[in-house]
Amino acid sequence: MDAKIDIKQALAAVGQITRHGQRGQHQFEYRGMWVDTEFDGYCVTLGDAQVSLEIHFHSSYQLDSPNRFATATFIEHFETLARRHH
Domain limits at 63? Predict the structure, then answer.
């Protein structure tokens, strides 16, 4: 799926989720989104019920989504979270 992802916005959303979210056994959850990190900190995954965005070192990423609508909704959701608490 060729979606343009603003990694700075995605990482800002990750910050909000880890700062304000509930910590589970392996991830943080906040407002319908979740964050999971690798043990070494070089990879973080941001997701919702349908989409996951794996962000790697040097801002490369892998997006897993069932369709364009789910991707657009996901992007809008994390961008809203990123702006909400700035």
Answer: 7-84
**Domain annotation covers residue 41:** yes
If one counts the domains in the chain, the total is 1
- Rg over alpha carbons for the chain, rounded to the nearest Å, is 12
Q: Is residue 16 part of a domain?
A: yes
Model's pTM, two decimal places? 0.90
Q: Is residue 1 part of a domain?
A: no
- With H, G, I as helix, E, B as strand and everything else as coil, classify residue 30: strand
pLDDT digits (tens, 9 = 90+) for 10-65: 999 999 999 999 998 889 999 999 999 987 778 999 999 999 999 998 889 999 99
Answer whether residue 81 shows pLDDT above 70: yes
> Burial code of 10-43, b = ≥16 C-beta within 10 A, e = fewer?
bbbbbebbeeebeeeeebbebbebbbbbeeeeeb
pLDDT tens-digit readout, 24-33: 888 999 999 9
